[in-house]
Specification:
YbeY; rRNA processing; Collagenase (Catalytic Domain); cytoplasm; ribosome biogenesis; alpha/beta; single chain
């Protein structure tokens, strides 16, 4: 189950964009061998709000494009598909039959700015940020060079399969 909540007024959110995001989330999870019923919340915010969230959650006082809040804690360097067969999820990770993967906060204002900066479509930028965030919810990270390389390669593979190019 995917919950989408638009909490900003700067960028028009179409049904088509919401459907594309849902498709990209499902596609990414399938490519990551995720076979459980799940729950992910996506909120759309503007730069001011994501800056507040970033300051509160990470003590970084600046706007960013996207923030991911995984519900599951992973061993360093491990991702969901490497662990799920051997992992017993805490009942707190479930809402009924759905495994709660976490929350994604995305600044559509920043995504629009970056789409202009990188000279590609707004939709492409949003899809990239969604893939990036879902991978975070599944344990990928980019805090060290090895993990960053692993995550960037996976992002590219998934976006290529989706036929979403720069």
């Amino acid at each position: 189950m995917i919950y989408i909540d638009n909490r900003q007024e700067k960028i028009n959110v179409t049904d088509e964009l919401e459907k594309k995001i849902e498709y990209v989330i499902d596609f990414t999870l399938k490519r990551e061998e995720f076979k459980k019923d799940y729950e992910i919340s996506v909120i759309f915010v503007d730069n001011a709000r994501i800056r507040e969230i970033n300051k509160c959650q990470r003590n970084i006082d600046k706007a960013t494009d996207v923030l991911s809040f995984p519900m599951i804690e992973y061993e360093d360097g491990k991702v969901f598909k490497e662990l799920y067969l051997h992992y017993d999820f805490d009942s707190a990770c479930y809402d009924g039959d759905n495994l709660i993967l976490g929350d994604i906060a995305i600044s559509l204002e920043k995504a629009q700015e970056q789409s202009i900066e990188y000279n590609h479509s707004f939709e492409r930028e949003v899809c990239y940020l969604i893939v990036h965030s879902v991978l975070h919810l599944l344990g990928y990270d980019h805090m060290n060079e090895a993990d960053k390389t692993k995550m960037r390669e996976r992002e590219k593979e998934i976006l290529d399969e989706l036929k979403i190019y720069r």
